[in-house]
Amino acid sequence: MAPDHKKIPPTSQKTPDKISLKLRVQPKASRNAFAGIHNGAVKIKITAPPSDGAANKMCVKFLAKSLRLPKSSVRIVSGAASRNKTVLLTPGPGKDAKKELDRVSRLLDVFTGGAKTR
């Protein structure tokens, strides 16, 4: 059976014009990387320390680069001072929202190992 690429982590929500993504961020890691699913949230490791907003900036930069979105399309909407964050992903300017968000969902599925829970 082929994988369903429209899956996103269970605590995330996809609407026609955005994806609200729950994250668990591990700062001061040895490298920037996706680390699967942790308690229903996408876990990412970030090299930046959790001070002066450095980890948040790196988080946005890492997600934008990995998901091939402009940085302006990745916005932390809650949890700026926490390891648990909610990030809003929107399509880039001039892009077809449905196609772009389906593409982002497929990439998230690949990066998180098919949205398996850990």
Detailed description of the structure:
- The chain is α+β, with helices and mostly antiparallel strands and 118 residues long.
- It has one domain (13-111): Conserved Hypothetical Protein Mth637, Chain: A, CATH 3.30.1200.
- 25% of the residues lie in helices and 29% in strands.
- The protein is built from two helices and six strands; from the N terminus they run ββββαββα.
- Strands 1, 2, 3, 4, 5 and 6 form a six-stranded mixed sheet that branches.
- Strand 1 and strand 2 form a beta hairpin.
- Residues 1-6 have low confidence and may be disordered.
Features:
6 strands, Conserved Hypothetical Protein Mth637, Chain: A, six-stranded mixed sheet, globular, 118 residues, disordered N terminus, alpha+beta
Q: CATH superfamily, please?
A: YggU-like
Helix content: 10-25%
Q: Give the overall pLDDT as a whole number.
A: 86
The end-to-end distance, rounded to whole angstroms, is: 22 Å
Shape: globular
What's the architecture in CATH terms? 2-Layer Sandwich
Q: Which fold name fills CATH's third level, the topology?
A: Conserved Hypothetical Protein Mth637, Chain: A
Q: Hey, roughly how much beta strand do the residues contain? A: 25-35%
Series of secondary-structure elements, N-terminal to C-terminal: EEEEHEEH
Describe, in short, the structure shown:
The chain is α+β, with helices and mostly antiparallel strands.
List the helices and strands and how they pair.
Layout lengths: L12 E3 L2 E9 L6 E6 L2 E5 L8 H14 L6 E5 L5 E6 L7 H15 L7
Parallel strand pairs: 2-4
Antiparallel strand pairs: 1-2, 2-6, 3-4, 5-6
